[in-house]
């Protein structure tokens, strides 16, 4: 794809703007290019164009919208390798993981292209013979989203495509660390035939200004955000002034539980996938491991052995399984949490090394207690603290002892325990004998302070639709 093969072409986005944002490769520190730092006036013009474009788009048929979105899906998959390379360059994850994210992001385009045709209303049995009652589904209007750096394509498509399929327009503000992927997939949407103004990407070094503008603008009817719980609270407060619809996918503190009857080899495999994907920089990755006393030593020995085999380096290099952390602050946080845990009595069983630059060795900590800081905080790095437990009741209490409630995982062969624990875990998503559970066909989201709303599945379309009740009298 000529438009994105050469990263320098994306620097042309900065023409006629007063300032620009440098995009760095976290593995090398090199500057990849520049994107605009849009000011308030420029973003307000984008919002006005989105409002105008949405009114026409809402009048098109779901079938026409599906045809355009289907072409977008195919273009993304046709350019999977180029998109993956851009992602690895600006985000750092290994190239194989980037390819996987491109396919995952494209799956939402494919899914919602068809799901948009099923925005069904209802005919409701009337209580009076001279009336007919029905409901229809209509787009909310202009939608805006603020997306994170850890999944720079999937977080755009998972939010933008249901909005577009529903008949909304969409404005996305990607993270300053990873804007190139967002611009690239938006360019492919244009090539697919999406009308001008319907999908806009804005970038700015003033994230606070963008968030406030999105929340206060009367032209924007819906806000979607993926990021920290702290920022989510701020956006919700700001949106309350205009009673704006919001969906929030916020922090996580996922427990990974291994019961005494678990398949230990399967649990180790699932733990590796859940914890170390994207160097542990995911909101749904396992954050703390609870292992039954009777299988603790076996699990730790096998887990640590596999973790020691993981290869850290530049995601473009062959054989690399762990890339860099996104920036210096992320690495400092990881190092601080490890140091604090060791000071409180934890042992480093694997890893624990600062590898220079923004690289940190995948690490397993043992002799960890439930009350340690590393258990309470969202780590967002390649660190696995492992805690012993002795009985199911105390385990459930520990697993639920957090303000977060996004994802959780456990391994067991006992069908009675499986249902009991799955129902008892206070999380929006539960993986049973699986370490990777995200898919476009299932609703993604959390409870408690991990957010509100759902993405993916039919529920993801509902987030961008209003239900209108129509009563016809005089029959």
Mean pLDDT: 95
- How many angstroms separate the termini? 58 Å
CATH superfamily of the largest domain: Aldehyde Dehydrogenase, Chain A, domain 1
Percent helix: 25-40%
Descriptive account of the structure:
With 475 residues, the chain is an alpha/beta fold. It has 2 domains: 7-250, Aldehyde Dehydrogenase, Chain A, domain 1 (3-Layer(aba) Sandwich); 254-432, Aldehyde Dehydrogenase, Chain A, domain 2 (3-Layer(aba) Sandwich), CATH 3.40.309. The protein is 40% helix and 20% strand. It has helices spanning 2-5, 40-57, 62-78, 80-91, 95-115, 154-166, 180-191, 207-216, 229-240, 264-276, 296-307, 328-343, 373-376, 392-399, 415-424, 457-462; strands spanning 20-24, 31-36, 122-124, 132-139, 142-146, 169-173, 199-201, 220-226, 245-249, 254-258, 286-292, 347-350, 363-366, 383-389, 407-411, 429-432, 451-452, 465-472. The strands form 4 sheets. A 7-stranded mixed β-sheet has the order 12-13-14-11-10-15-16, sandwiched between helices. A 6-stranded mixed β-sheet has the order 7-6-5-8-9-17, with helices on both faces. Helix 3 runs antiparallel to helix 6 and helix 4 runs antiparallel to helix 7. The radius of gyration is 23 Å and the shape is globular. 51% of the residues are buried. The model is unreliable at 1-17 (pLDDT under 50).
Attribute tags:
single chain; 475 residues; alpha/beta; Aldehyde Dehydrogenase, Chain A, domain 1; Aldehyde Dehydrogenase, Chain A, domain 2; 2 domains; 6-stranded mixed β-sheet; 16 helices; disordered N terminus; Aldehyde_DH_Superfamily; oxidoreductase; succinate-semialdehyde dehydrogenase (NAD+) activity
